[in-house]
Structure formats: C-alpha cells, structure tokens
TrEMBL record, chains A, B:
Keyword Phosphoprotein: no
Gene Ontology molecular function, alphabetical: DNA-binding transcription factor activity; transcription cis-regulatory region binding
Record keyword Transcription present: yes
Domain HTH tetR-type: 18-78
Official protein name in the record: AcrR family transcriptional regulator
Record Gene3D superfamilies: Homeodomain-like (1.10.10.60), Tetracycline Repressor, domain 2 (1.10.357.10)
Residues annotated to bind DNA: 41-60
Matching Pfam families: TetR_C_11, TetR_N
Keywords: DNA-binding, Transcription, Transcription regulation
Top-level lineage group: Bacteria
Residue intervals passing through the bilayer: none
InterPro entries named in the record: Homeodomain-like_sf, HTH-type_TetR-like_transc_reg, HTH_TetR, Tet_transcr_reg_TetR-rel_C_sf, TetR_C
Amino acid sequence: MSIEAEAARKSIGAKRSLESAEAILEAAEAVLIENGYSGFSIEAVARRARAGKPTIYRWWPSKTALLLEVYQRQKRDITYPDTGGIEEDLFIFARSLFAQWRDTPAGDIFRSLVAEAQQDPAAAEALAEYSAGRRAHTGKLIERAKARGEVAADVDPSQVADMVSSYAWVHLLTGRLDEDEAMLRRAIRHIVHGIAVRR
Amino acid sequence: MSIEAEAARKSIGAKRSLESAEAILEAAEAVLIENGYSGFSIEAVARRARAGKPTIYRWWPSKTALLLEVYQRQKRDITYPDTGGIEEDLFIFARSLFAQWRDTPAGDIFRSLVAEAQQDPAAAEALAEYSAGRRAHTGKLIERAKARGEVAADVDPSQVADMVSSYAWVHLLTGRLDEDEAMLRRAIRHIVHGIAVRR
C-alpha cells in the first residue's frame, strides 16, 4: 500500500480499518480469480467485500492501485536472497521473478497492468509509483553489497535494480520468459562485471 | 519488412509491387498521423492507398505488423554510431532512442503497440519479430567492439542490445524518458564495465 493510503488508513483509526482493508484486498483477490483481469472492477470488489466504493477509493485512488496491491500479495514468493554475493543475489531474485511470471497468473496480470498504464493516466501513475517502490526494494540487495565493499560506492542501487527488472519486464512483455537460466545469469553477470575485456 | 513479407513481395514480381508497398506504407503513415493510433485500421489504409485489403495482408500479416513498419520508418533518425568505443556507441544510440520517443509521436505509437501486444496474439507475434530484429541490428555495435577486441569474445551481442533496449523500453512504459543523460550514461557504463569494485 502506498504511503498516502497507509496514512489515510491510520487517520480513520486503528484496528477496524486494518480489518476492512484486509477484507477489501481479499475480496479483490477473489474477484480477480473469478472474473479475470477484464472483469475486475471497483464495483465488483465493493459488492463482494460489502463495502462502499468511497471506502475503497479512500485507500486506493484507482482500480489499478488496488490491482497492483493484489498482484503484489500474490507475488509473495519472490525471493530477495542474501547469499553474501551480489551476482548470486541478483540472479536468484531475477530467476524467481521470471518463474513467478511464467508459472502463475501473476505474469498475465502484470502484462495487463502495463498495457492499461499505456492507455489510462491513473493506471500510469499507479504503475509508476509501484515500480519506483519495487526498485527501492530490490535496491536493498545492492545497498548491502555496497556495505560489504563488493559494489562501487558511486553505484545507484535503484538504478541497478531498474536494469535487472527492465530486463525481466521486457522478457515478460515480448513472451520470452522461457529464456534459459544460463542466459539470465549472463545478463546479471554483465551488470556486475561488465562486458569489457579486462586489461 | 519481414523476410517473409519481402519474399512474398518478390514472388509477385518486381517494380510494380515495390511501388505498391511504398504507396501502402505512405498511406498508412498518413492514416496514422490523421487518425492517431486508435483510428488506425487496415480498412482505412486500403481506402487511402486505393489498394485491396488482401494486397495489404499479403505483405503484412496483421495491422500491428504494418504499424511497426510505419513506426520504424518514422524512427529513421535513430543513431547507430561508430565512434570506435562501445560505451560511447551504446550511449549515443540509447540517448537518440530516448529523444526520439520523448520528442516525437514515435514514443506514443510504440507504447500503444506494446499495449496491444499484451492483448492480441497477432500483435504479440509482430512485436516479438520486430524486437528480435532490432536486437540483432543494435547487436552490430557490439559485434564491431568484439572485432576490435574491446568486448569479451563470449559476449552475446543481441543480449547486450536487449539489456540496453529493455532499459529504454521500461523508461518509456513508466513515463521516465526525462531521465538525465548522466544517469543514462551510468546505466550504459554498468553494462560495459560492471558495478563490481575492481580488485
């Protein structure tokens, strides 16, 4: 959930609203499973959660914002490893992202979200916020590697996360999630070690 | 144009069909400018080019295939430099792609094409074929650097092209084409030299 949504939720107070938010998210998940992406709507979620539409909109400014949180909950299995080596950490992370998109409905949901963001400004905003959050989160792997002295001090962690996730996004968007692991490892290795001949 | 479309065109013979193809592409370009992406259709192009729909479909298997060729023609200004240094070559290429997408209608057209490919299998196929062709083309920059001994022999040129263009695609798709040049250069540098501390 976004910081604003979190703040809004807190402002209406404590336990009750946390339960409502959870109920809405569960209803949204059920609607998505039953109706698919194209049949997903705030109306359907409100009906199922027995909540008012204004309550939902108070916490999620758009359908896409709500969908992204449902998507993120489904994607809990993504691995953010801590092997002590940045190449291995990033490879395991990227491999788990490929697998999740390839082997579960999460991939199709995310493709639809990206498509919607190209056509609808509210969706674009929600996707931009979501992906910035993801870059910051994945960036923690690189921050740790900087702290270990493994990665150069002037490297921007979220940019490296951006490079890894962009590679994954475009594989999703062009139907290439079946790329073999050796290729994926090479991509990660290029970012970590570069392609230039060592002199 | 795809190899198959090229072959099909040749099989119906010489000059006349090349002229027709050119006329259709020009008509398609005009329709796109006048009607925008959402108003673009094979029917409209056929009317404008005074061609039959079957003629168009003989060369372009889908609306998206035709749109991608029009898009590619508009994108002629993309620079594939040969400065003698791979970092500079890739940076200039990526910067020109960012600029073209940011400053001309090409960016919105391509966003729409990517969105359509998430919803329509024929569009997905056309985009997959197109992007494979682009990776091979951009890969030539890396092939030259390999020939110069600047890039390691086991590097896959089209994979490096993939990494650079994926970074650009996701910036387009998440509204971040205004990223400053220094950041873009760092992304390219990470691929060329890596992020690891040199020991």
